Amino acid sequence: MYLRRNLPSFLAIFAAGGITAGAQTADTAAPDAAQILQFLKTLKDQQAQQIRTSKQRILQEAQTAAATPSAASSAWVEAVRLSQFEGAEKEGAQFRAWKDNDGAAFTDVAVQRAVQLYFRWLALTMQRSLGTPAKDLLPQVIQHTKDVAADQTTMDAFADKIQKDKDMAQSRLHGNRKDTSREDERTRKVHDQVLRTAINAGPPVRVMRAEDLVKVDQWEMVPGNIEGIFNAIVLPELRAVRDPRVFEYWDMKIAREGEAVKTKPAFDQDKFKTERYPQLLWSRAKEYVALGQPNRALAEMFKVAKNYPQHPSLGSWIQEIETLLAPKAPTPTATPATEASAGTSAPTQ
Fold it and tell me: Coil, helix or strand for 189?
């Protein structure tokens, strides 16, 4: 409606030269391409240096926090305060309420141990992000998985204690003893949250606004994920150099799963013995192929198939064994006839 009412005025302005098509479409003088490219290169170099400086700062802070369990716990609690409560209405009251609930768990040795593992993994991640080769970090990475495995064993025993305390609280044998199962469950919950959360999603990284800086290709971001760490980092590096330590992983995995199933019902224990355990042995046997020992792999794989003929994966196992046994096609070699035909033709007389 506005345009229709004022159309004569717009046409008058256009006719008078107030709006010229040429002024809108005419290009400017060619820019100095070399100068622009040089300036952009300077910007990229500055950005790269800023990113590196930021990563070094994160590494230093992570190493400082990982020095002791108490230092790690204090750093985490402060990060929670800054990232979740600072500037909020009734900030102090809300933060105190958190400290009286989940925050209270950070005084427990189990949670402090988990937070220390978090910061150790963050430090290793930043070293990798700054360019340290994964193979150079491998000893520390493997030690981290051992520490996490030991922590998990401790927490499994802790979970058994929680259940026993619950049972005692409901029985007459409990007497006047204080029921601590609720506090223990909170400790376990917070512990698991710390180790099962990706490091770039944790409060320490979020408060530094460094989520995008804490990213590494072919790396595991969850500090408590032993499987992920081995599959993404350890096993590829060991296989690349044909290191027999790959079997330590499978032995550890078999032992841990076997120990965990002991507390399960008889049905689960039987299923582990007849299905899961043979599958783990099969995967272990196949590692010999990656190590360049196909004959050893064949012998171990055949032993598994022979000992567990009722396994659901027997069909695929047989196919893999047959593939290893199949004769390799000979490399084609040139015959005199093909050599002659491939040569230069004689000139016509």
Answer: helix
Q: Where are the domains of the chain?
A: 49-173+180-241, 242-325
Closest CA to 158 of 190, 202, 197: 190
Q: Locate tokens 């008058």: which residue? A: 12
Beta-carbon count within 10 A of 99 CB = 16
- How many angstroms separate the CA atoms of 290 and 99, rounded? 51
Residue 127 and residue 55 in contact, taking contact as beta carbons nearer than 8 Å: no
DSSP state of 281: H
- Note the pLDDT tens digit of each residue in 144-169: 999 999 999 899 888 877 777 776 66
As a whole number of angstroms, the distance between CA 271 and CA 330 comes to 44
- Strand, helix or coil for residue 334: coil
pTM attached to this predicted model: 0.77
Q: Which residue has the tokens 């490091």?
A: 199
The pLDDT of residue 32 is 87
DSSP for 66-129, written as a single string: TTSHHHHHHHHHHHHIIIIITTSTTHHHHHHHHHHTGGGGGGSHHHHHHHHHHHHHHHHHHHHH
**Per-residue tokens: 273:** 């013995």
